[in-house]
Amino acid sequence: MNPDIFNRNCGSRKVIDRIGDRWSLLVVLALADGDKRYGELAERVDGISQKMLTQTLRGLERDGLVTRTVHATVPPRVDYALTDLGRSVLDLVAGLEAWATTHLAEVEAARARYDAR
């Protein structure tokens, strides 16, 4: 079977769903400059709840995009980092971030025109 993201039963759609999820996208971007602890990620990704951050990290780990390393310290320290696979998606995610910031004013103007109708 050839991957077909338009087919709801295709695994490639689940990959797109993971990468395209807003929290996953933001967590990947937050990890772009190196390992982070859970609290650092929670602070960096404004608005994410503990539940969503935990679910997002677990999903990214399950998909092989993030590693979770537990250090045997008191208290235990847990670090999250992008895997090679996770780093391979950075150009795409960073491109989306760059597009959004570059075109923000245009999008906001379009929204204002639409809402004024």
Summarize the structure.
It comes from Micromonospora inositola. This protein is mainly α.
Describe the structure.
This protein has 117 residues and is mostly helical. The chain has a single domain (11-116), classed as Arc Repressor Mutant, subunit A. It contains 7 helices and 3 strands. The protein has helices at 11-20, 22-30, 38-44, 50-62, 84-88, 90-102, 104-116, and strands at 36-37, 66-71, 77-82. A 3-stranded antiparallel sheet has the order 1-3-2. The model has no long low-confidence stretch (mean pLDDT 94).
Quickly list its features.
7 helices; single chain; Arc Repressor Mutant, subunit A; 117 residues; 3 strands; 3-stranded antiparallel sheet
Tell me the layout of helices and strands:
Layout: H1 11-20, H2 22-30, E1 36-37, H3 38-44, H4 50-62, E2 66-71, E3 77-82, H5 84-88, H6 90-102, H7 104-116
GO molecular function, one term: DNA binding
Protein name: Transcriptional regulator, HxlR family
Keywords: DNA-binding, Transcription, Transcription regulation
Rounded to an integer in angstroms, the radius of gyration calculated over CA atoms is: 17 Å
- Report, as a whole number of angstroms, the end-to-end distance: 47 Å
Give the helix proportion (percent range). 55-70%
Give the topology string: H per helix, E per strand. Answer: HHEHHEEHHH
**CATH architecture label:** Orthogonal Bundle
What's the level 1 CATH class? Mainly Alpha
Helix count, DSSP H or I runs of 4 or more residues: 7
Keywords: DNA-binding, Transcription, Transcription regulation
Domain HTH hxlR-type: 10-108
Organism: Micromonospora inositola
GO molecular function, one term: DNA binding
